[in-house]
Amino acid sequence: MADEWIRLADGSRFTQTALGFVVDQFLQIVEIHPDAAAAATAAVATSSSPSSGNLGVGGDGDRGKGSREEEAMRRTKWYPTVVLNLDVKKALPEEGVEWLFVRVRAKRIQNGRMDLEVVVLDEEGDLVAVSDHVCLIVGAERNMKRSGRSKV
What we know:
The chain is an alpha+beta fold. Helix content is 20%, strand content 31%. A hairpin with a 2-residue loop joins strand 4 (100-110) and strand 5 (113-121). The two termini are 26 Å apart.
């Protein structure tokens, strides 16, 4: 699970039309939780695998505790969204809101695929939206190839 409070860097406010963006821009579970990172790495063919499984945010909140090899491995993944469902539960005010809370929970991470639930709350803690995702975990080179075909 990953929790974060978000706001737009330029100071503008989140409106109803921004909710699709909000639910598709979140911390990647496999990059911040050791168990998830190990599962994702096992699912994607690589020449090496994490030895310690310590790939990201530890209990004390420090990033980057893994080796350079593990850090590079994390940065070589791409997580394309295959399916995204958005259920809006509460309309945001017309003038928008400055802050939103986003919680991402992995339902399952297996065989190069993540099933995720994203919950969005407003500053008062009211449920604004729920989104379910199916994402792939693939090597970044799949996104970097130049061709006329689909990248997934």
